[in-house]
Amino acid sequence: MLNGGLQKASALLNMRVDKHSPLPCLAPEQTLLDKAEALALPPVIIGMMTAASMQSLGHHIEHREALTVECWVTSGLSNVRRVGDKADDHAVPGTINICLYINQALSDAALAEALILLTESKVTAIRDAEIISPVSGLPASGTGTDSHAVFCPDAEPQHAYCGKHTTLGELIGRVVLQACSISLNHCLRSLTESS
After folding, report:
1. Residue 13: helix, strand or coil by DSSP?
2. CB 93 within 8 A of CB 75
3. Three-class SS of residue 76?
4. For residues 90, 96, 97 and 103, what is the CA-based torsion angle, rounded to 10 degrees?
5. Distance between CA atoms of 123 and 121, rounded to whole angstroms?
């Protein structure tokens, strides 16, 4: 929601908002900037919002020699959809936010490919959990308001690409799938306990 796209950033904010309280009258970008200022985060900040419980946090990290890939996921499922479902122009709280960190520099093309692998891994986790879209009644692929970010050092790229045949691609798939599965399980358990 704040500073999306290709950016040189110093901080990430995944801001939790209360799904039962209306957001302040400020635009979401200004709300995120105000929170970042209150937290004294250095600019440039990448900002996301979620009404998901922080109890839904899923985290996983893997290392292969000097390469480290780490992922954090928060999940809310009240807004779950299948790609291509009929639009309703009314987003309700319920978001899957994913932050992926790679400790080695990627080319712009590899960053785009990492985002594709992240998304594919999320969809795989949702399908593995057998989550169904309430709109179409078919297997879901995400929510209507998901936000994802991929971070790596700003340096000479060490990876020109990161497809499934590469070690980096393997690690991205493994950490995102595992972190998403943990987060979705927390979320589904919470929904079961509250019903």
Report:
1. strand
2. no
3. coil
4. -150
5. 5
φ/ψ region of 148 (left if φ > 0, alpha if ψ in -120 to 50, else beta) reads: beta
Cite the DSSP H helix spans in the chain.
28-38, 108-128, 167-194
What region, left, alpha or beta, does residue 94 occupy, with left being phi > 0 and alpha being psi -120 to 50 degrees? left
Q: How far is CA 5 from the centre of its chain?
A: 14
Map out the domains of the chain with their CATH numbers: 1-50 (no CATH), 52-194 (3.30.365)
DSSP for 47-74 reads EEEE-S-GGG-EEEEEEETTEEEEEEEE
d(C-alpha 36, C-alpha 15), whole Å: 9
pLDDT tens per residue across span 51-104:
898 999 999 999 999 999 999 999 999 899 999 999 988 777 789 999 999 999
**Residue-wise pLDDT tens for the chain (195 aa)?**
899 999 999 999 999 987 665 555 678 899 899 999 999 999 999 999 988 989 999 999 999 999 999 999 999 998 999 999 999 887 777 899 999 999 999 999 999 999 999 999 999 999 999 999 999 999 999 999 999 999 999 999 999 999 999 999 999 999 999 999 999 999 999 878 876
What DSSP designation does 159 have?
A: B
Rg over CA atoms, the chain:
17
